[in-house]
Amino acid sequence: MRLADKRILLGVSGGIAAYKSAELVRRLKDQGADVRVVMTHSAKEFITPLTLQAVSANPVADSLLDPAAEAGMGHIELAKWADLILIAPASANLMARMAAGMADELLTTLCLATPAPIALAPAMNQQMYLNAATQANLNTLASRGILLWGPAAGSQACGDVGPGRMLEPLELVERCCQQLAAEPLLAGVRLLLTAGPTREALDPVRYISNHSSGKMGYAIARAAREAGAEVTLVSGPVALTTPADVTRVDVESAEQMHQVVMSRVGECDLFIGCAAVADYRPEQVASQKIKKIGDNDQMVVKLVKNPDIIAAVGALSAKPFTVGFAAETVDVEQYALDKLQRKRLDMIAANDVSREGQGFNTDDNALTVFWQGGQAPLPLADKLTLARQLIALIARHYRR
Ligand code: C5P
């Protein structure tokens, strides 16, 4: 319940993405928010007030000059009630009116009257979005401190492809959580994080790798960002989208990951090594695709050791607070404690990858976190929940 006791005024303007507003209200309420909806006149052409009233469990306001509504929660009261005004979808027309400072209907009036932050989730046809007038309005609004969340690019309801899609409801909920977070646990902390597998080339088309999906590392990146950290994610090849507001540097091999980490580690306060780095790589990388040779039933590949990235970070004289992972199939605790000492880590999160449904390439995981003189179990949960718990634990020790 990351929005418990938070009051969100959701403005809905007239655009086809308004069909997602009902889902957005539901997801905001899932996080404990109290949601009140204000619709523009044209929004009602796309979705009914009754739908939004039912999902928000609050009356929907749409008129500035309605005596009955004003007798309930008047427009100035409503403007003061909100902790955040989120307008999703925000149409080109609504943004033009806001940029001009108009108070021509209830929603635009609330935007002028509120002391709360205002966030817009633009949604419109890509040509309308790219139009110079819309862009100028967006710049004006941004220069006044209005938050612009999105738009995303992709296929549009009208058949066009381009920028102008409203961010998905869950993404918007995430932005609300970040915006309204009480006390960010890692505010201002610079985190460098590795995630995913590495690929060790044999020839131009083949490589040695492992089953790491990167999901745990990406969940940590997101949780750390939510907690206020500045996050740089050094990622092996994965099929995941970069969490909002996270800087991502893509690498393939362990050597590349090592090089990127060492070049950036001096500017970080916290290092988390979550990547499943290949311990060895082929000694020779063939410049041409390796051919089958005659009747040879066997071929020999000689492997050489890769640099141990986290051990190199741990060995620095001015090292950041360093957190490692240990994926083991047996004697989990013993190996984890050994790694904590040997790699000079401040903390290590151990998981038993031999257990079905947790660890590599799954959505759930369970960890036991060890540090000098203590440990904490983080029981089976989805990786994002676990990542948030891990970040809270790291923050407690980091701040000491
Ligand atoms: O020794 P082991 O590979 O099990 O240690 C796991 C921890 O070390 C993880 O945090 C992993 O990201 C890190 N590691 C590394 N570079 C390597 C091997 C592992 O940073 N070459």
Automatic annotation (TrEMBL):
Region Phosphopantothenate--cysteine ligase, annotated ranges: 191-400
Cofactor note: Binds 1 FMN per subunit.
GO biological process: coenzyme A biosynthetic process; pantothenate catabolic process
Binding residues annotated for CTP, in chain numbering: G273, C274, A275, D279, K289, P307, D308, I309, I310, F325, K339, K343
Cofactor: Mg(2+); FMN
Pathway: Cofactor biosynthesis; coenzyme A biosynthesis; CoA from (R)-pantothenate: step 2/5; Cofactor biosynthesis; coenzyme A biosynthesis; CoA from (R)-pantothenate: step 3/5
MF annotations from Gene Ontology: FMN binding; metal ion binding; phosphopantothenate--cysteine ligase activity; phosphopantothenoylcysteine decarboxylase activity
Organism superkingdom: Bacteria
Keywords assigned by UniProt, alphabetized: Decarboxylase, Flavoprotein, FMN, Ligase, Lyase, Magnesium, Metal-binding, Multifunctional enzyme
Catalytic site: C158 (proton donor)
Region named Phosphopantothenoylcysteine decarboxylase: 1-190
SUPFAM superfamilies: CoaB-like, Homo-oligomeric flavin-containing Cys decarboxylases, HFCD
Chain ranges of the Flavoprotein domain: 6-180
Gene Ontology cellular-component terms listed: phosphopantothenoylcysteine decarboxylase complex
DNA/pantothenate metabolism flavoprotein C-terminal domain span: 186-396
Sequence similarity: In the N-terminal section; belongs to the HFCD (homo-oligomeric flavin containing Cys decarboxylase) superfamily.
HAMAP family (alphabetical): CoaBC
Record's protein name: Coenzyme A biosynthesis bifunctional protein CoaBC
